[in-house]
Design goal:
13 helices, Arc Repressor Mutant, subunit A, Rossmann fold, 11 strands, alpha/beta, 330 residues
């Protein structure tokens, strides 16, 4: 019978005994422990050898065996080239235009401004062309960072104003900034985004508002965000827009027109109370640019493109790769 001698309360003697107990170097448990110490705890081989009271060469052999048995897998990722990802993304989604940037460590939304400017320049918008502006954090950031000069274009809000004070909801302010930067004419929407059906009709009957709404039939280009289903989104963005009757099939929205991942429009109770450009008006735009990032939005972006409410996309490599993986094009 193996007996452990009484050690009293001396913790040092206990520790010495533990490190000198026989170690089964062939067990998977030992291989797993050594691998975790080296690869996850970032412990040097010499430190592991000292801890386990074995030689450094023994630790090296254990790590090699752990790799051979598949306990440790080392993967060297190929570099992600934004230009290549852009081409693959455009092909996978059937986009008219796309721009993908390297995912920056900070300021990701503002970093989308340069590729957005390039797409707008390539669109060759003429004086009197109509640019529709949506709302959201991404739209706010790219407009704040600056749009290219496009003198005499018409810049119009794609929906009425929110009641909330959050900066990313101030669509008329986005229109003002965009018109100032492009050298265009601002068309503000002095009507609520949501109201009762009767008030909506009254607002749309106002000649001043009707003049702005009529521009939606002439949209050449839109700049919009892509939202999540409100169950997944920031509550601040949906405090007045939440509708618990919205189908779980909805994966996202463009200016509160919801869709599923296949691009089918998902109706909801608030649709008839909105003062906003219609799905068909968004689809009729020559260039509809979605500005969106985050891996979580991959299904939302896919659905937005399939719905034809956007036909161009500005995003980052992480989001693009998530989209390609979901579409089987990774």
């Amino acid at each position: 019978m193996f007996r452990v001698p009484f050690l009293g309360s001396n913790p040092c003697r206990k520790q010495n005994l533990e490190t000198k107990l026989p170690l089964d170097l062939s067990s998977r448990a030992t291989l797993h422990m050594v691998a975790k110490l080296h690869y996850e705890a970032d412990m040097a081989q010499v430190e592991i050898a000292r801890k386990l009271n074995v030689s450094t060469s023994t630790v090296s052999r254990l790590l090699h065996k752990a790799r051979a048995l598949g306990i440790v897998r080392i993967e060297v990722l190929d570099p992600v080239v934004p230009e290549e990802i852009t081409e693959r993304l455009a092909e996978a989604l059937g986009l008219k235009a796309a721009a993908v940037i390297d995912t920056p460590s900070t300021g990701i939304l503002a970093a989308l401004t340069t590729p957005l400017r390039d797409l707008l320049r390539q669109a060759d918008l003429k004086p009197s062309s109509v640019i529709g502006i949506g709302w959201g954090r991404a739209v706010r950031e790219v407009i704040q960072a600056g749009l290219p000069r496009m003198p005499d274009v018409h810049v119009v809000a794609l929906n009425g104003g929110h009641q909330e004070s959050a900066p990313h909801l101030q669509i008329n302010e986005f229109v003002r900034n965009a018109a100032e930067q492009t050298g265009g004419k601002a068309h503000f929407m002095h009507a609520p985004y949501f109201s009762s059906a009767s008030l909506r009709d009254a607002f749309l009957g106002d000649p001043g508002i009707r003049e702005k709404v009529d521009l939606w039939d002439r949209i050449d280009c839109t700049i919009v965000g892509v939202g999540l289903h409100h169950r997944d989104a920031d509550p601040e963005s949906h405090s007045l827009l939440r509708d618990d009757s919205l189908s779980a099939d909805a994966v996202g929205d463009v200016i509160r027109h919801y869709f599923d991942v296949q691009g089918n429009v998902v109706p909801w109770d608030g649709e008839g109370r909105m003062i906003a450009a219609s799905v068909d008006q968004l689809r009729n735009a020559r260039l509809s640019i979605g500005v969106a990032v985050s891996v979580e939005k991959a299904p939302s972006i896919i659905g937005a493109v399939r719905s034809r409410m956007i036909n161009a996309l500005v995003t980052d490599t992480s989001t693009a790769l998530a989209i390609l993986e979901r579409t089987g094009s990774h």
